[in-house]
């Protein structure tokens, strides 16, 4: 029996609800999308029901809903349907991911007398598989990517080709093949991944477009058969087929291409009898200007906010969740295609728990202080006339635990302005104003990417992020040296006059990190030496190797837990702002979205022996997938010892050098934390 509870702590286990099912919505999802749906449903007067696992019992979406139901898994069809019935919900919104495109889920809800806010199971069956969707596109007269049959001879293919799973998405079961010699191995790997991810190893083989832009069209259909488009989005900035930045409208297409792509999307949706919100994805070949149908997502998209920010219906902004709910209750859309217009430009950045400058490894743990854009008055004061808008859809609060069990997306920062250039500038500033302590995120990477010349010039194609823009210097990693200088400035607090003007606490009261020249700190001519991970001299208009001028800021002193302060300084001719937290011997700083941690050494403590170089530690929290060696095995440098996975990423654990395996702590299926010792390799005499 499913246990339900209200968010005030009351509960019921009789499977009934006093709430009218026609006005009760269960959200079969978590995180920021669950909160997003709850906001609109509550505004419209619906009673909202959240579901949650034990890990999410105290999550923001649970606290925001009117009622909550515990489930063992968000992916258990029977359990989620039972939760809907027990809570008295007449409707279920699946959000995106999880069960949102699962036809068996739609059928099970229908059999239970519950309405899915989305298309029918039959439409999901038709469009959820890339091979069937391709056939429907051909029938609707929509261009498709040239393809090969599974029985065709690979030696006859015009390479490169793309091998991809017919079921599912998100880049799983997808490989680019550049020669016939690579084909069999790539096909086997794609099939294995597709079977693991989707339970189906059916593959498609298509022409691979070397340089293309990902353009997708938002469509809406109602039960009366009306289908309209809400224009297009460009999602070309991707990494390993997963989107990083999205914008609307698409910046590079011509009016003729826009008309052709949007009309093709409407034709496809009409062909399949689509009702609700859906997205038709296309690949635009930069070399030829031709576009091809890729797939249809039969759900709301992560990037739907950029559409909401730029589309107007009779001059008013649209709420896609509201339109979904209206269609689900049988209402018509209530507008025609000619009443839909574009206004301004919007760009969205996805904030993930990952170390983008450290191999994009997923991160997990407890967040410290969290501040999203828009929380400071000065954030919204940019521009003149029609003001730019910053919107943040997130589900991360201070002190919240981030688990590796779920997708690493923490939130989305969206900027709207009258022009694309203004929207980009607004998003850069919004990411500057995003501070997440205690947990490494990709915010600094997003900030650098949005501000790059390639993104500003709209020259990024779908493969660009996979061709190492870091190596080419096109996306520059934030400077740790600059961050260290800013941290030192924050800790010394500038001169006495600057401190007083800024309301700063005098450094002598802060219990600052150990200073190497403490015996002569009072000497006016002596610089202050601040010991971080390196010694930084602050004084005479310098901070370390940087010309620096203190402009203001504060660093509150709240004992060992620290407080969030900030420093504003002119460094090497540019103004920089950074947020700072001190906790004991740790100084944590967020500069331009990037988190830096400086551990202050204790000069009076003997440094213990470091872990041997041969110890292979877990580089991320996750699950051990494979152990390939045993104690006593001889291994070569770089040889894979095992595999682990977390948050959609697989990583090989490799031997640091040639030697003999002396310890194996890893076990297949084990959940391991970041930094857990998994293997030890010791070099033999011949390896030294």
Structural class computed from helices and strand pairing? alpha+beta
- The multimeric state of the shown protein is single chain
- Contiguous runs where pLDDT drops below 50 for at least 5 residues: 7-19, 376-385, 495-524, 603-611
Estimate the global geometry from the Cα principal axes. Answer: globular
Largest sheet: 8 strands, antiparallel
The radius of gyration computed from the alpha-carbon positions, rounded to a whole number of angstroms, is: 27 Å
Distance between the termini: 63 Å
User: How would you write the strand order of the largest sheet?
Assistant: 31-32-33-34-35-36-37-38
Mean pLDDT: 86
Number of separate strands: 46
- Total number of helical segments? 15
The portion of residues assigned to helices is: 10-25%
**Which percent band covers the strand fraction?**
25-35%
Record keyword descriptors for this entry.
single chain, eight-stranded antiparallel β-sheet, 46 strands, alpha+beta, seven-stranded mixed β-sheet, 688 residues
How would you sum up this structure, described in words?
With 688 residues, this protein is an alpha+beta fold. It is built from 15 helices and 46 strands. The strands form 12 sheets. The chain has an 8-stranded antiparallel beta sheet with strand order 31-32-33-34-35-36-37-38. A 7-stranded mixed beta sheet has the order 2-1-5-4-3-6-7. Strands 8-11-9-10 form a 4-stranded antiparallel beta sheet, with helices on one face. The longest helix has 19 residues, at 180-198. The radius of gyration is 27 Å and the shape is globular. It starts with a strand and ends in a 6-residue tail after the last strand. The relative contact order is 0.07. The model is unreliable at 7-19, 376-385, 495-524 and 603-611 (pLDDT under 50).
